[in-house]
Amino acid sequence: MKKSTQLLKKYYKQMLFVRRFEEKCVELYAQEHIRGFLHLYIGQEAIAVGVMDALTPDDSVLTTYRDHGQALVRGVSPNAVMAELYGKLEGCSRGRGGSMHLFDAATRFYGGSAIVGAGLPLAVGIALADKMKKQNNVTVCFFGDGAVAEGEFHESLNLAALWNLPILFVCENNLYGMGTALELSESQTDLVKKAASYKITSSKVDGMRVLDVAKAAKAAVAEIKKGNGPFFLECLAYRFRGHSMFDDELYRDKKEVDEWKKKDPITLFTNELKKMKALEELDLQEIEEEVSSIIDEAVLFAQNGTLEPIEDLKKFIYATEAEDE
Ligand SMILES: Cc1ncc(C[n+]2csc(CCOP(=O)(O)OP(=O)(O)O)c2C)c(N)n1
Ligand SMILES: [Mg+2]
After folding, report:
1. Pocket test for ligand 1, best of 122, 178, 194 (most atoms within 8 A of CB)
2. Domain that holds residue 220
3. Which of 162, 164, 199, 231 would you label with 19, given CA atoms 20 to 30 Å apart?
4. Domain tally for the chain?
5. Per-residue pLDDT tens over the stretch 289-315
């Protein structure tokens, strides 16, 4: 298989994997194996896949509570992610974080956070550390359109620009923050203008098209690694499901959802593969089976995992106790 076809296969497989993993999560949630909050990334897969391909293992990643896609594509073990969703000790956050707080230092995946905008100042800190240590790494911070209303967003962009930090800000603009449409919460809905006001270079990309996202992210990371400071990439997208598992979606028209579903990133990419005549070389059924067996294994791993014993309840409350471990 040609190298270029291998890359296309990787994109397809990663997007499908995230999609199927989360569809499985929906089932497991209904069966109450997964509890608590669960925010799905379905519809936005092309963004995680396209951006992550521009990174090296030394780069850092931060994101929001809608974090399964980024964690899986970054390379956090699917077993550890599923075990985390089950609240098991073998989870990537020892079962204490759950869906919104996936974390894995080995892949420099610094979370998942429940607080809107919370990843932004952390990203500034990590990028500042990289810069002070003269390490030519990039920190990628994913956040939603809702985060631009937060003070932390403005403080973070200002400092990143002022200190010329190596950060890629990836705004996943899916047009809604919970049940509030962007135009109801922002006077300026052209989000790249906000970055421009901090003198941060920016671009906008169709977040439903993985090849476009990959190209834009690669160009942005190259600029950052040349020492040109932060970059703001707005990815226009849409979440196909509700905000979380509990959402009656009264704030948006079903027709609008159906229109966006025609732009499903996996369907769009399959059509592109057809056009590029790459589809003949790819066995989609085989990829589907590969993905399915990884997910089955993850579910089994999580089911067989351990619930933290009650005597460990107070562990990790204070930093000193964590150090004793
Ligand atoms: C500081 C803060 N304010 C409010 C909330 C409640 N909240 C949870 S998700 C959310 C919407 C965020 O929307 P967006 O950033 O667009 O991300 P999306 O859910 O669309 O991915 C809000 C307001 C919160 N978690 N943190
Ligand atoms: Mg949003």
Report:
1. 178
2. 3-324
3. 231
4. 1
5. 999 999 999 999 999 999 999 999 888
